[in-house]
Amino acid sequence: MAISIEELAADTNFTTAAKGKFTLLPDPPRAERHFPIISVDDHIVEPPWTFTNHIASRWADRAPKVIEMEDGTETWFFEGQHLPNVGFNAVAGRPVEEYSFEPTRFDQMRRGSWDIAARLADMDLDGVYASLCFPSFLPGFCGHRIQQLTDDADFALALVRAWNDWHIQEWAGRDPNRIIPMQIPYLLNPEIAASEIRRNAERGFKAVTFSEAPHMLGLPTLHSGHWDPIMAACEETGTVVCLHIGSSGTSPSTAPDAPADTVGVLFFGYAMFAACDWLYSKIPIRFPEIKICLSEGGIGWVAGLLDRLEHVRRYDSMYGTWNDIDITPADTFRRNFWVCAVDDPSSFSQREVVGVENILVESDYPHADSTWPNTQETLQTQLADMPSDEAEAICWRNAAKLFRHPIPAEVAADPNLF
Questions:
Q1: Which among 41, 234, 238, 378 counts the fewest CB atoms within 10 Å?
Q2: DSSP state of 139
Q3: Separation of alpha carbons 206 and 202, rounded Å
Q4: Which of the 8 DSSP states describes residue 27?
Q5: What is the DSSP letter of 231?
Q6: Other C-beta atoms within 10 Å of 259: how many?
Q7: pLDDT confidence of residue 6
Q8: What percent of the chain has pLDDT over 90?
């Protein structure tokens, strides 16, 4: 079962937080450094000026804008629709009892949620050297909302290009050593999308966020071959395909009257489902050099999935899907997929099954799952019994290699230097 992100956000009983109440806690102390860290899952709350300097004048009046409502809340306004969740769970630096799908004003969230200078300062406080930042509620985690809420395909392409221009110039451009550039894809024409990926690779983009399950967005399935031009472009350019939980516009759920906790607990579920779907779509077989990264899904499910893949392999001739392929599904997973730990202490004991070289970490700033400002302490505790070379690989070396984003030698030797 699945529930849409919009339904979750509209459910006033999802949390016990009092609507409109907000408290911004004081800055935490600077974290003690144990490792350099590359977080492969953080989020941008798009600031009000995201499109201002990057959309052609012919589209300027139609571009998304932030407006203030009579009740004092702020909302995005786009194509005649109000999109009220400005912050969409940008709760870093607030008390847990206030966590919800708010805030609905920029001044009710920690400035690092939407301001790059403040974000870099918050990364310094947390001991995170480099960050890969996904879009937030306005475009959707894979950029689908700003494309599907308009009937004008040319306008949608202009918005995608504007967001990407803003990201590479203003967000990642503020300090290219600290932010790994990630683009949103054009979803309405895979040939045009492939051209954009090649163009963006030349501009320095290292990754593209894509939907874990495009059919849930009303788009063609992974099994249709429709997306192959995009996958070919990603393989050709080394662009990492990043799949964030919820990029299907939905979240796993159970019974309709189950408490909201079940959604929070099962949020990782789509990572496992997505891994299976992408694997058996044979995209990694048609494009053997493609790199697929699963964000915010955790790693606890991976060893179980690999076991199940090996088990089903014993009788997969009854299905026929994999009969003419030499490499096994489990080995294909290890070759083409990377997974991301998010507060997974017991799961690191399975790292040799998963593959140490396939594990990355995240801080998920500024969302509720975030380990900020305790990411250093969290990883130090959870990796304490691990050989130092393996801990370094998981904290930063794997991500540096995957995203072609090296950490300076002096910072690698002494993370207190940033």
A1: 238
A2: T
A3: 10
A4: P
A5: H
A6: 11
A7: 64
A8: 82
In angstroms, the CA 253 to CA 1 distance is 5
Distances (CA, A) of 323 to 238, 270, 307, 317, 327: 28, 27, 19, 6, 10
Given a contact cutoff of 8 angstroms between Cβ atoms, the answer to whether 72 and 392 are in contact is no
Query: Residue 75: beta bridge partners?
Result: 67
* Domains of the chain as residue ranges with CATH: 114-406 (3.20.20.140)
What is the average pLDDT across 50-64? Answer: 95
- Mean pLDDT along residues 218-226: 98
Q: How far apart are CA 331 and CA 361, in angstroms?
A: 22
Integer Cα distance of 299 and 56 in angstroms:
43
Mean pLDDT of the 252-272 span? 83
Confidence of residue 15 (pLDDT cuts 50, 70, 90): low
Is residue 193 within 8 Å of residue 229, measured between CB atoms?
yes
Distances (CA, A) of 148 to 72, 75, 159: 28, 18, 11
Residue 394 is given by DSSP the state I
pLDDT band at 18 (very low <50, low <70, confident <90, very high): low
Please say whether the beta carbons of 143 and 149 come within 8 A: no
- pLDDT category at 224 given cuts 50, 70, 90 is very high
Strand 2-4 and strand 81-83: the pairing is unpaired
Tell me the residue type at 56: A
In eight-state DSSP terms, residue 221 is P
Residue 360 phi/psi, 5-degree rounding, is: -125, 175
d(CA 5, CA 72): 24
Mean pLDDT lowest among 162-171, 182-191, 339-348: 339-348
Terminal-residue alpha carbon distance, the chain: 45
DSSP labels, 292-342 = EEEESS-STTHHHHHHHHHHHHTTGGGT-TTTT-SS-HHHHHHHHEEEEES
C-alpha–C-alpha distance, residues 144 and 213, integer Å: 12
Region for residue 88 given its phi and psi (left: phi exceeds 0; alpha: psi -120 to 50; beta: otherwise): left
Q: Is 92 helix (H, G, I), strand (E, B) or coil?
A: coil
> Cα–Cα distances in Å, from 92 out to 66, 124, 308, 373?
22, 15, 37, 8
3-state helix, strand and coil shares in percent for the chain, rounded to the nearest 5: 45, 15, 45
